[in-house]
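for the writeup, i need someone to sanity check this before i put it in the appendix. the sequnce is what the collaborator sent (i think, or maybe the updated version? ugh). structure was predicted straight from it, no edits. if anything looks off just tell me and ill rerun, i have time this weekend
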Amino acid sequence: MTINTEAPTAKIGPVHLAPGVSYWNGATLLYASFFSIASTVFLSFVQPYIFTEILKIPADEQGTLAGNLVFFGELVVLSLIGVAGVLSDKIGRRPVFVFGFAMLGVGYILYPLATSSIELIAYRMIFALGIVGATSMLATVQADYPQERDRGKLVGMMGFLQAIGVILIVFTLSKLPQKLSEGGMSPVEAGQTALWIFAGFCLFNAGVLRAGLKGGVPSTVTTREGFVPILKRGIKAAENPRVALAYAAAMVSRGDLSTVSTFLSLWLVQVGVAKGLPTSEALAIGGKFFGVVQLAALLWAPVVAIISDRMNRVSALCMAMALACGGYLIAGFIPDPTSAAMYPAAVFLGMGEINAVLAAQVLIGQEAPKDGRGAVIGVFGVCGSVGILFVGKLGGYLFDAWQPSAPFILMGIANGVLLLVALTVRFKWPGHSPMRPSTVIH
């Protein structure tokens, strides 16, 4: 006899929500999915314009500066994302999520006011406070809201919306400096205005999340515990080899995302400017190919969702690492990223990027214990930050010292190494199938 312990609850689309989670809570999470990743990615995408038109940074120094911005920003994330997870277990997910969006808005206000590289780094570190709140809580609430049988479906829906958000926002706003310049603004004024418009979006979204997310403290958490005991639970969870694998996958998949968001635009803009194009026009070309990457991710996300709910989730991660390895290596060996050859490369890049990210999220969502889940997701985020630090520093150096495609080759190799690790875990510690969730008694 089989007894399903998941009682009938609210639904959003095909996803059955956990007890106590309303339809509007779920809808607000999907809304947050649309804006969260786009809000953190757009700043890195538009950085080449700031480097060239506002700060006048020489082209042969821009890769290193981009890497340093990622590095120092991720130092903030690495220092605080675990604390954010623990804090969300103590005071609730909603206030941390709202704070994150508010700080993203502040970062967009300050960034185009920078007058030096040092000042830009300082503003990036303020922006990183927003990344801590927004990305850590997106992952944590995503783990909280679904029933286990539909976890992959929710992750797929969120990945789909994240890709749409990035496509629409980056594709639209990448052209905004050019349009504002054509309207009579100076290049500096056009860049500042574009970022301030987006700052307004972030502050508005903070209000939406405050109104729509589920309030209160997770009922499975003992709030009398201190920060250290809760955080230790997240670290101790890595005794489960599948949790440890998910932590490693966070390092690689977040490095994948950082490579695309930080170096793709910079690479394309530099090639476009070298061909004699205005910076605003080169940025628009970058937006086109960036849009292709995200469109491929958008179309592939539902496939990932279906796969994740129909096969062992470590096996799904193996498939993701293989695809990401191929995608990043193909992109890394394209000689001219502004040519037509970049279209198929961008497609494989987008498929590999989204597959790696979603497979890691589904695996940690399955394996994270309900008691102290915020701390486990926090450590998952810390591991992601380590991956971004690695890509930012080494990728930025190789971008200037070797070739602009070097960060993509680097991540292709990293995905290949993780594939070997995942295969080892799959055959030594296979775990349970999502079709036979741990919440079902057999």
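Strands lie at 3-4, 11-12, 15-16, 440-441. The mean pLDDT is 82.
thx in advance!!
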